[in-house]
C-alpha cells in the first residue's frame, strides 16, 4: 500500500510546516520553537496524565467540556503543541482541527527527562503569552506540581507551588477542586 501524496500550496513557511506535521501518518508530532519532535510518552508519563483526567473528569463533564491531548496552535510562531491534558469546551472541540491556548480552561504538561525544560520554561512562557488561564506543571523529575495562573505577555503573574508530590494542589474556578498528587 502506498501513501497518497498531499498537495498543498502555502503562502508562508509557518503554514506549510504546520500543515506538514499534521499529515505525518501514524505519529503525533509537535513543534517547539521550530524544532519538530515526535511524541512517544512513557507509560509512567501517561499514567500521571490519566490520574489527572480521572480526578477532574466529573467537573469537566459538569462544565460541558472535554479533556484530551488535542493540537494547540500558536499562530504567528513556529509552535504547534500537543499538551498532555487540555480541558476545552465541547462546542469548540467538536469540529476543530486545532485550538489556541486561550480557548482552554486548563493545560497540564507532565515532564519527561528528555523535555523537562521545554515544559518548565518554553511552554510555560508561551502558554501565558497565548492566554491559557491555568497551566499545571507536573514535574516528574523534581517530584513537584506547580500551578500557574493569570497569564500575561511576559509570563504568568501568579504561581502556586512548587508543591511536593503528596500535597494537594487546589485548582481554582471553574474547577474548585483539590487535586490529589500522592500517586504521581
Draw up the topology in text.
Blueprint: H1 13-22, E1 29-32, E2 35-38, H2 43-62, E3 65-68, E4 72-74, E5 79-81, E6 85-89, H3 90-93, E7 106-110, H4 116-129, E8 134-139, E9 144-152, E10 155-164, E11 169-171, E12 177-179
Parallel strand pairs: 7-8
Antiparallel strand pairs: 1-2, 3-6, 4-5, 6-7, 8-9, 9-10, 11-12
Outline the structure in words.
There is one protein chain. The chain has four helices and twelve strands; from the N terminus they run αββαββββαβαβββββ. The model has no long low-confidence stretch (mean pLDDT 88). A hairpin with a 2-residue loop joins strand 9 and strand 10 (155-164). The chain has a single domain (42-179), classed as tt1808, chain A (Alpha-Beta Complex). It has 184 residues and is α+β, with helices and mostly antiparallel strands. The strands form four sheets. The protein has a six-stranded mixed sheet with strand order 3-6-7-8-9-10. The N and C termini lie far apart (42 Å). The protein has helices spanning 13-22, 43-62, 90-93, 116-129, and strands at residues 29-32, 35-38, 65-68, 72-74, 79-81, 85-89, 106-110, 134-139, 144-152, 155-164, 169-171, 177-179.
Quaternary status: single chain
Unreliable residue stretches:
none
**Termini separation (Å)?**
42 Å
- Determine Rg (CA atoms, Å): 17 Å
CATH topology: tt1808, chain A
Overall 3D form: globular
Roughly what percent helix?
A: 25-40%
- Mean pLDDT, to the nearest integer, reads 88
Order of helices and strands: HEEHEEEEHEHEEEEE
What is the overall number of helices? Answer: 4
The CATH class: Alpha Beta
Q: Spatial order of the strands in the main sheet?
A: 3-6-7-8-9-10
How would you name the CATH homologous superfamily?
Answer: tt1808, chain A
| Secondary structure: number of strands | 12
Question: Biggest β-sheet, characterized?
Answer: 6 strands, mixed
Strand content: 25-35%
Secondary structure category: alpha+beta
Number of domains: 1
In the CATH classification, which architecture applies? Alpha-Beta Complex
Amino acid at each position: 500500500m502506498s501513501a497518497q501524496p498531499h498537495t498543498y500550496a502555502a503562502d508562508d513557511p509557518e503554514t506549510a510546516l504546520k500543515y506538514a506535521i499534521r499529515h505525518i501518518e501514524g505519529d503525533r508530532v509537535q513543534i517547539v520553537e521550530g524544532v519538530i519532535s515526535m511524541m512517544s510518552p512513557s507509560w509512567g508519563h501517561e499514567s500521571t496524565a490519566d490520574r489527572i483526567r480521572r480526578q477532574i473528569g466529573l467537573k469537566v463533564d459538569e462544565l460541558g467540556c472535554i479533556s484530551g491531548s488535542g493540537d494547540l496552535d500558536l499562530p504567528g510562531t513556529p509552535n504547534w503543541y500537543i499538551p498532555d491534558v487540555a480541558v476545552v469546551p465541547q462546542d469548540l472541540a467538536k469540529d476543530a482541527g486545532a485550538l489556541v491556548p486561550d480557548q482552554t480552561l486548563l493545560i497540564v504538561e507532565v515532564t519527561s527527562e528528555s523535555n523537562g525544560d521545554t515544559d518548565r520554561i518554553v511552554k510555560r512562557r508561551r502558554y501565558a503569552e497565548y492566554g491559557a488561564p491555568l497551566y499545571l506543571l507536573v514535574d516528574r523529575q523534581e517530584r513537584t506540581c506547580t500551578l500557574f495562573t493569570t497569564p500575561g505577555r511576559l509570563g504568568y503573574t501568579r504561581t502556586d507551588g512548587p508543591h511536593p508530590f503528596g500535597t494537594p494542589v487546589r485548582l481554582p474556578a471553574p474547577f474548585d477542586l483539590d487535586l490529589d498528587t500522592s500517586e504521581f
